[in-house]
Amino acid sequence: MSERLPAGPRPPIALDHVSRWYGNVVAVNDISFALGPGVTGLLGPNGAGKSTLLHLLAGLLAPSAGQVWVAGRPAFGDPAVYRDVGLVPEREAVPGHLSGREFARLNADLQGVADPGGAAHRAIATVELSDAADRPMRTYSKGMRQRAKLAAALVHEPRILLLDEPFNGLDPRQRLHMIGLLRQMAADGRVILFSSHILEEVERLADGVLVVYAGRLAASGDFRSIRRLMTDRPHRFTIRSSDDRGLATALLAQPAVFGAELVDGLLAVRTSDFGAFSRLVAPTARAAGIRLFEVTPTDDSLESVFGYLVRR
Fold first, then answer.
1. How many Cβ atoms are within 10 Å of 108's Cβ, its own excluded?
2. End residue of a domain, out of 226, 243, 261
């Protein structure tokens, strides 16, 4: 799935039929989209191509085909792009012998910030790392290293933020702070694209979503509409009960159920409505005098959800 880019001036982020391959491996396959200010979630299972997309936007990779624009110019081969972009990579990229403050100051120096010391101080305070700012980063927890990387990305006050799995290692309080911080930055006009393989993270933060699976853009748009696509799809449950055959007969009388069969000693039920089935299975069993021992959705992994979106 790809989208036609809007006519007129280019938005802050724009990809036009972009592909990236490594030998015979296609990591990103013919993706087009455009983003303006706000928070967009890049959602997909591990290995879907999310990190490759972010590295293309950060100018770290050249597209094998298509064009990538950031801040109105090609992302690759133009160091001026880095003035507008802050990148938080997923992989650990912090020198352990430096303190958090020194790491932020180093990035401020690299960006040519007029007051690198002051900029580092503000960035460290923004991510709530001041108490540990002068400790070597090798002593930091994973969540603290995440915040140090974010401080380094913010030190030059970029208008575009690219965040690869930014919530990894954060405790619940730190996650809430990160969500509030990113929302405020988006309200101030920044363009924020963050990747995640966790649906709930995207739901809590993102205004829009890009769903990537196997290198392709499976869906894009408002989160609610994408969530509806994910929910309104065929589902499969396995059930253990005191009378699987009797329960199958009772469930097949329900409009939401379109299939039931015994597989390896379990009752496998297919339904067109996850929520409706979840509400009706217990009352249906009770009315038939059947005891439920186990009800398990068997196709609710992100991989199955995204695979369904790609096949639509």
1. 24
2. 226
